[in-house]
Design a protein that fits this description.
This protein has one domain (5-340): Metal-dependent hydrolases (TIM Barrel, Alpha-Beta Barrel). It is built from 17 helices and 8 strands. The longest helix has 19 residues, at 116-134. The protein is α/β, with parallel strands linked by helices and 342 residues long. The chain has an 8-stranded parallel sheet. Bound molecules: hypoxanthine (HPA) and zinc ion.
Length: 342
């Protein structure tokens, strides 16, 4: 008999893992949101943390985004961004996280008069401390808001270039339908020419065509969400054959009603097809699940086997932008922990 699911969930928590799809603004828990809003004299649309949590019940992606952008208004100073990031790190340090590649949305702050420097300095300083205190390494990925113009994206890219040593890659998020990747071909070309790697949310709510464009026009190295790939067998074949990693976010994909139930999230299907699938948490404060809870949800929902859980943890390391030597060290540690817990 295989291990019980409680044991498997505990093993999933212990195994060294990377988080590759995490919006730092999506880790803003209601308690910190209220604390910062009070300090910064920002008005929130909720009377209490309970009321905020009750409002986190979304009909679709746009419904989530409206609430997410509104809550961000409580983040104003460099220290606020430091506290936000450190609160995230403290939680996942207990969940086997060894490396995080973290999205941030500067345009959502610039539009409220918060400078690029304020945002990136606070997050970066916390990530430096995270490395020292918890041994967690990280890279930052600056996301363009795809529902804003290409000109606005180009402007924020120029800001990012000033902080190049702190930012590994560019990404793209926000409202997908109606904002296809080709809108940003020139922006991504400029970013890649400046040495940034590229990823993009694609096929979260828009058709497979958006994933083709993200691969062929934006030349991304990883697909965020990617669920709509299954409409197109040729695309699925390419993603598997070229080992283009996919960052699935099980709890959030149910939370925005792309899937009805966790059981419908195609994690096993991706693994069976040889796709480098990974488990991630997206916006844990809003969808109510950090990395370990996302693993636990698919372990329960899909009745995952031990070899599948191990594969997902190893995939997260492989799919990261870490140098090969560091990937090797983490993978060896996965094997060591497996032996110790067998
Ligand atoms: N999709 C699109 N935009 C986002 C997301 C997401 O999952 N999270 C934060 N911004
Ligand atoms: Zn996302």
């Amino acid at each position: 008999m295989g291990p019980k699911s409680t044991d498997l969930k505990e093993l999933a928590r212990l195994l060294p893992k990377a988080e590759l799809h995490l919006h730092i603004e999506g880790t803003l828990e209601p308690e910190l949101m209220f604390e910062l809003a009070q300090k910064n004299r920002v008005k929130l649309p909720y009377k209490s943390t309970e009321e905020a949590r009750r409002a986190y019940n979304f009909s679709d992606l746009q419904d989530f985004l409206n609430i997410y952008y509104n809550a961000m208004k409580s983040l104003v100073t460099e220290t606020d961004f430091y506290d936000l990031t450190m609160a995230y790190i403290r939680r996942v340090a207990l969940q086997g996280l060894v490396h995080a590649e973290i999205f941030f949305d500067p345009q959502a702050h610039l539009s409220r008069g918060v400078s690029f420097k304020t945002v990136v300095s606070g997050i970066h300083r916390a990530l430096e401390d995270a490395k020292g205190r918890y041994g967690i390494s990280s890279y930052l990925i600056m996301c363009f808001l795809r529902d804003q113009s290409a000109e606005s994206a180009m402007d924020v890219l120029q800001e990012a270039k000033k902080y190049k040593p702190w930012i590994k890659a560019v990404g793209m998020d926000s409202k997908e339908l109606g904002n296809p990747p080709h809108k940003f071909t020139t922006v991504f070309e400029d970013a890649r020419n400046s040495g940034f790697l590229a990823v993009a949310h694609a096929g979260e709510e828009a058709p497979a065509e958006y994933i083709w464009e993200a691969l062929d026009l934006l030349k991304i190295s990883r697909i965020d969400h990617g669920y709509h790939m299954f409409e197109d067998p040729k695309l699925v074949e390419r993603v598997a054959k070229e080992r283009i990693p996919v960052t699935a976010c099980p709890i959030s994909s149910v939370g925005v009603n792309y899937f009805k139930r966790i059981e419908d999230v195609p994690i096993r299907k991706m693994l069976d097809l040889g796709i480098v699938a990974t488990i991630n948490s997206d916006d844990p404060a809003y969808f109510k699940g950090y990395l370990a809870e996302n693993y636990a949800a698919v372990i329960d929902g899909l009745q995952l086997r031990k070899d599948e859980v191990v594969k997902l943890a190893k995939n997260s390391i492989e799919a990261s932008f870490l140098p090969n030597a560091e990937k090797g060290t983490h993978i060896k540690m996965v094997d060591k922990i497996l032996i110790e817990n067998s």
